[in-house]
Design brief:
Number of domains: 2
Strand content: 15-25%
CATH topology of the largest domain: TIM Barrel
CATH superfamily of the largest domain: Alanine racemase
Number of strands: 17
Largest sheet: 9 strands, mixed
Order of helices and strands: EHEHEHEHEHEEHEHEHEEHHEHEEEEEH
CATH class of the largest domain: Alpha Beta
Radius of gyration: 22 Å
Shape: globular
Amino acid sequence: METPYYLIEEARMLPTLERIRYVQERSGARCLLALKCFSAWCAFDFMRGFFAGTTSSSLYEARLGREEFGGETHGYSVAYDASEIDEVVRLCDKVIFNSVGQLERHRARARGVSLGLRLNPEVGHSRHELAHPALRYSRLGVRAEQLPSDIGDHIDGAMIHVNCDNDDFASFCEQLTQIEARFGALLSRLTWLSLGGGVAFTSPGYPLDAFCERLRSFAAEHSLQLYLEPGEAAVTNSTTLVVRVLDIVHNEVPTLIVDAGVEPHLLDVLTYDYTPELEGAVALERSDDAALRRPHAYRVCGRTCLAGDLFGHYRFEGPVRVGQELRFPDAGAYSMVKNNFFNGLRMPAIHHRDLSGRLRLARRSSYEAFRAALS
């Protein structure tokens, strides 16, 4: 197949989806696919059976969820424009506002759907400040002391999304304790609560049974229908980005130039400054110059003009040649949804392999797509 391309494989996705189904069955919580993380609708027919529906961060995502996925459609935005509200209400079962001001401005036009408000408990978990939803000055959600006394008369539910890559069950439990302390009186008036995404409960070794019990007891104590919004937790290790070596350049150390770029095709590597897993190679610390001078060690870089277009430093099992394919096996989350045409590079194609092994081309990029994205 012509590189670069993403390969989505249902067999590799299945283990995490089965964990999601297990959590729903054991805890009573409903799971919604977070489209901001993964919106490759070629896989929706397979994924649909493991989720109650989708959650969105914009009008377009809400429409995609309603039309291509089905089930419950939750709509949230940091700020809705007045021109969007009528369509959002038409598409969604639940509409969640980010601020009291947004709720007050738009609730009259949102009659007929269940309304919610994003809350900020001022606690959270993230390894990166950039992705921490509850840091000081956060614009995401309303703090307890900012809530009007009659807020329970105007909303049915709430969303509290304060995690990013949180694999610490004790941290999650402490968050629930803090949520009860800050919002206990309001919780008793609500019918549903979304705990958002960013909880890595599908990771191997995560204490699923204890997690389910904590969710079940929390829901029972407050008479709430709970929701979880897995994104990365749903698609970890499901999708491979396949690239090809176009050139090898030498400037003290060898550098592989591949037919993709970090900024247009795997943006989170640049945003969060990490080295993605690469099949058949061991990732090296970028600061370890000595390791980079050992046999079969290479810098792997993209072909954009960005000087820092670097996937990472790796040691391979043997020498790498021009024309060789390289495979990044965990490239499903926050990759395709962030693709762009920087430098006019061709978007990677998207291939989809179902459980039976049947392979199909879901999307191929073109010059026409590049031109249409411009003016």
